[in-house]
Specification:
This protein has 577 residues and is mostly helical. It is built from 28 helices and no strands. 35% of the residues are buried.
């Protein structure tokens, strides 16, 4: 847009430049605006030589240009910003996802470089607190978010917020909007507790300074409901979303885009609450309304169809899900093109359906196509390409095609070490997959060494009581067990149990998952005792396992029954001795 505005000025300049009257007000104004853009590096290169030429040619004073720059410094363009924000809040204006837009037009790197240059130039002329500088920083943060550079995006977003707090105040709508973006950023990283805390603070402030049914308040309530849903607090999410929906129907009407978005969020909550009929009925209502109001080919309409197909897939209605996914894929190919990111996502979703139907060849074919397109369109180092490589590698591992999985995992680790560093969580996750592949190939010594490397890294980065560190301890114990190194296996299993119990005592949020794995570690240790010849110790520990399973799983659970059968077998052996 900035380049377009400058090019329009250039076009008008060339149209009028042949005029003999160089003091004409129109040409003087055009030249002055071009000079300001060149001075600021706004949508054009920052070229001082051209500035001097135009000043001389059109008899303008350098002080005139500096005065215009000073006006930009002291004039707040917040009014126009607020008008656009109002239109967006009310669902009357669609926003551009900058990263996705630039990527689709193959200018992502160019746009990022230009943004950085413009931010630098504008900051030197206008100061860091200028609204235009902060707006460009927000755009750059959006690009970094698209590239999954969470740290870079978060740093920029926090800078924008701090600047707005200083220049506009903590309660200004623009400041609150940027805080909302930070909350979304937390959500993208699944940092739901931080997102919830920030969202509650935003909502409290908005209720103090805005009208009761203001669009900002409704958006904040809606997103807080989404956070509750992601945290597994579906009942709270439902109450909040129903409240928002009722207000939006009154304020905007039942067919409004904002109302449809809230209804779509409510369907996800109903699915999570196992209210399947209610969820599907509301979902179909959203789709039919969107088709009527927006059209079948509108991105939001297609998005609602996609979410229904995913819900049906998760509920096991695979034929219905497949039918929706196939129709949606063909529609997106026709409307958006074969390599559009939404089309590729439809291919990924259809592969998930095929996988659940055990149609493995068709699932693999789609996964391979997805990776090929991602590499071609986005490059090998892009977050989506990396995710596609990981997804295909996991598919190969699940099919016990370990050689193919290993090839992909080694390539993935090489890329992530280069782009993210050796101890970045994504790099470590990929190393974990490779270690698991080695275990599947029964390459125990290599698996053991890699798990130890991972344990040391996770311990440094996350601490001994973090889940990933504890899983590494247990994995090390399993590799020693497979090599019949019982003492080493016992040592690491005890370490895992001890760290897991400390984590539980420290108030881990996912208590049930942690408890289940702690019981699994105890079970592994019992088998180690048995292999060492301590059958009595093994039985005592397995009795503790059985007691926990009876409480948390019940007597009819498969794992509980297996534990009871093992105890019986070991007791008979002990009696026989």
């Amino acid at each position: 847009m900035r380049q377009y505005l400058t090019s329009c000025l250039e076009h008008r300049f060339y149209k009028y430049r042949c005029s003999q009257d160089r003091e004409n007000a129109t040409i003087q104004n055009i030249v002055l605006q071009l000079l300001v853009c060149s001075r600021l590096g706004f949508g054009t290169a920052r070229t001082y030589l051209r500035i001097e030429e135009l000043l001389l040619q059109y008899m303008l004073s350098k002080n005139t240009v500096l005065a215009e720059v000073e006006k930009i410094k002291t004039t707040s363009p917040i009014t126009h910003h607020s008008i656009l924000q109002d239109l967006y809040d009310k669902g009357s204006l669609e926003t551009i996802e900058f990263g996705q837009f630039y990527s689709e037009h193959n200018i992502l790197d160019e746009a990022k470089s230009q943004l950085k240059a413009e931010i630098s130039h504008l900051t030197s002329e206008l100061g860091d607190s200028a609204l235009v500088v902060q707006t460009l920083k927000g755009q750059l943060a959006a690009i970094l978010l698209f590239e999954a550079d969470w740290t870079g995006a978060e740093i920029l977003q926090e800078q924008v917020i701090e600047s707005y707090k200083q220049t506009l105040g903590d309660t200004h709508r623009t400041t609150l909007s940027e805080l909302q973006r930070l909350s979304f950023l937390y959500g993208e990283q699944e940092r739901w507790d931080e997102a919830e805390q920030l969202q509650i603070e935003i909502l409290a402030t908005e209720k103090e300074v805005l009208d009761k049914n203001h669009a900002h308040i409704l958006i904040s309530m809606e997103y807080l409901g989404t956070i509750y849903h992601e945290q597994g607090r579906s009942e709270e999410a439902e109450l909040l979303q129903v409240e928002v929906l009722q207000v939006e129907k009154e304020v905007f009407g039942e067919d409004h885009r904002r109302t449809l978005l809230t209804m779509d969020g409510l369907t996800a909550t109903y699915w999570g609450l196992d209210k399947f009929e209610k969820a599907q009925r509301l979902h179909l209502q959203v789709i039919e309304t969107a088709k009527r109001v927006l059209g079948e080919e509108h991105p939001e309409t297609m998005g609602y169809v996609e979410s229904l197909a995913a819900a049906l897939r998760d509920q096991g209605s695979l034929h219905e899900a497949e039918d929706l996914e196939l129709r949606l894929l063909e529609l997106r190919k026709r409307v958006l093109g074969h390599e559009h990111h939404s089309t590729i996502r439809s291919m990924e979703n259809l592969a998930k359906v095929y996988l659940k139907q055990q149609r493995l060849e068709e699932a693999e074919s789609l996964k391979v196509q997805v990776l090929q397109v991602r590499r071609r369109a986005l490059g090998e180092e892009h977050a989506e390409t990396i995710l596609a490589m990981h997804d295909l590698g996991a598919f190969y591992s699940a099919q016990e095609r370990f050689d193919e999985a290993e090839e992909l995992e080694l390539k993935l680790i090489e890329i992530l070490r280069r782009t993210h560093g050796s101890e970045h969580p994504k790099t470590l996750d990929s190393m974990m997959w490779l270690a698991t592949t080695y275990r599947g190939q029964e390459r125990w010594a290599e698996a053991q060494q890699l798990f130890i490397t991972l344990y040391e890294a996770y311990n440094r980065v996350l601490g001994e009581e973090d889940w990933e560190t504890i899983i590494c301890m247990h994995s090390i114990a399993k590799t020693y067990y497979a090599q019949q190194l019982w003492d080493q296996s016992e040592y690491w299993e005890l370490q895992a149990i001890d760290a897991s119990k400390r984590a539980l005592d420290g108030g881990m949020t996912d208590v049930h998952a942690f408890h289940a794995f702690t019981v699994s570690f105890m079970q592994g240790l019992a088998f180690t005792y048995k292999q060492k010849g301590d059958t009595g110790g093994a039985i005592r520990l397995l009795e503790d396992v059985k007691s926990e399973q009876l409480v948390y799983k019940g007597p009819d659970d498969t794992k509980t029954k297996a534990t009871v059968a093992t105890l019986k077998e070991w007791a008979q052996e002990l009696e026989g001795v």
